[in-house]
Amino acid sequence: MTVTGRGIDRARVAEIGQREEAEYRRRTPKSAALFQRAHEALPLGVASSFQAYDPYPLFMTDARGSRIWDADGNEYIDFDMAFGVLAAGHSHPILAEALQRRVVRSERTLFCPSPAHTPQLFSRWNKVGAPLENRDGP
Predict the structure, then answer these.
(1) Could you tell me the strand order of the sheet in which 60-64 lies?
(2) With contact defined as beta carbons under 8 Å apart, do 88 and 81 qualify?
(3) Cα torsion 111, 115, 116, 121: sign
(4) Model confidence pLDDT, tens digit, residues 58-92
(5) What is the C-alpha to C-alpha distance for residues 135 and 73, in angstroms, rounded to an integer?
(6) What is the 8-class DSSP label of residue 43?
(7) Which residues contact 138 (CB under 8 A, 6 or more apart)?
């Protein structure tokens, strides 16, 4: 970053920001499209305000260990590792096997309600989730 005698060169900062946003948009068109679809079902187009940022959030489609992939196939290292992932990583084989056994024994897992009890929720999920289920990710 260029620093002048008076402080930060704000024009240079703006130039770098514009360049980086253009590259972000170039690499993530599927996330942009999914974000537009998500606005039909979710406030701000995301599940929590923590995930909302400009120009749009990435939509992740796969995760293993410390690595995650977005809908466009870009690979990232997950430095956030929130909500339990920190303890075991994404898709830990032991946890994945236990979840597979659970799914086989029941229509419902964890806190997921039955479609009969929440038809509106599942109608909204079909609008947003269907593209992720049919992805061509890693």
Answers:
(1) 60-64, 67-70, 75-77
(2) no
(3) positive
(4) 998 888 888 889 999 999 988 776 666 666 667 77
(5) 10
(6) G
(7) 61, 62, 69, 73, 75
Domains and CATH numbers, the chain: 28-133 (3.90.1150.10)
Cα separation, 97 vs 91, in Å, equals 9
Stated pTM of the model: 0.61
Q: Diameter of the chain by CA atoms?
A: 68
Do residues 46 and 52 make contact, with C-beta atoms less than 8 angstroms apart?
yes
Residue type, 2: T
Q: What are the structure tokens assigned to 46, written together?
A: 């995301």
d(CA 60, CA 69): 6
On the 0-12 / 13-18 / 19+ scale of CB atoms within 10 A, 37 is middle
d(CA 67, CA 89): 9
Q: What angle do CA 110, 100, 50 make, to 5 degrees?
A: 45
Structure tokens at 41: 């079902």
User: Per 3-state DSSP, what percentage of the chain is helix, strand, and coil (rounded to 5)?
Assistant: 50, 15, 40
